[in-house]
Amino acid sequence: MSTHDAATGKSKQAAIDWREVHQRLETARAAVERVRTPDAGETKRVLKARAQALAREPEKAQAADAGVEVLEFFLAHEKYAVESRHVREVYPLENLTPLPCTPAFVLGIVNLRGEIVSVLDIKKFFDLPEKGLTDLNKVIVLQSRQMLFGILADTIAGVRRIPVAEIQPSLPALAGIREQYLRGITPDRTILLDAEKLLADEQIIVQEQV
């Protein structure tokens, strides 16, 4: 090959159509963008999925923090609690009138501003042993649409929220003692009563029979 031919070959190899190269790159880039960019429907589905995923996290946190608001009270040196949504009021125990021919756990009735309310001793209702004399100077009035009665208390401890996760369903110390009316027990040994079941039990209705 002559020197002229070699130079001509180099010129042919160096002659690159850069405009065509750029056009090809642009075409390839546009094709990639079309693949990566979803349509309106796909975008909506992706955003909805992300929103649902984000919403699940607060729901889990709320479930973990879920609890019940209760009124705590002491009776015979033990702490009990009932859900505050079932409590109508707390009333001083005054002018208790005993009733004949009623179960032992029914101590009598009181006149609450013209309304006759039966008063129950839950220690006797649950067949728990007596632990000496106590004050018994408070009546916690529980109410539902069908039922109204009071339960005795020595002192009111206050209102607080108990996390559901802390309520232990197993009550080995109270097994067999009307356990269907117990919701559980907390780590600090507070006995949570199932006021809803108590209020739904027609056997608690006081019917005087001589």
Description:
It is a single chain. The chain is an alpha+beta fold. It folds into two domains: 3-64, no CATH class; 67-204, Beta Barrel (OB fold (Dihydrolipoamide Acetyltransferase, E2P)). It is built from five helices and ten strands, in the order H-H-H-E-E-E-E-E-H-E-E-E-E-E-H. It has a five-stranded mixed β-sheet with strand order 8-1-2-10-9, with no helix packed on it. Strands 3-6-7-5-4 form a five-stranded mixed β-sheet. It is rod-shaped.
Residue stretches low in confidence (pLDDT < 50, at least 5 long) are none
Rg over C-alpha atoms, rounded to the nearest angstrom? 38 Å
Instruction: Quote the CATH topology of the largest domain.
Output: OB fold (Dihydrolipoamide Acetyltransferase, E2P)
Q: How would you spell out the order of helices and strands?
A: HHHEEEEEHEEEEEH
| Gross CATH architecture of the largest domain | Beta Barrel
Measure the end-to-end span.
137 Å
Q: How many separate domains make up the residues?
A: 2
Number of helical elements = 5
The CATH homologous superfamily of the largest domain corresponds to CheA-289, Domain 4
Which strand-content bin applies to the residues?
25-35%
Shape: rod-shaped
Question: What is the CATH class name of the largest domain?
Answer: Mainly Beta
What is the averaged pLDDT score?
77
* Secondary-structure class: alpha+beta
| Adjacency order of strands in the biggest sheet | 8-1-2-10-9
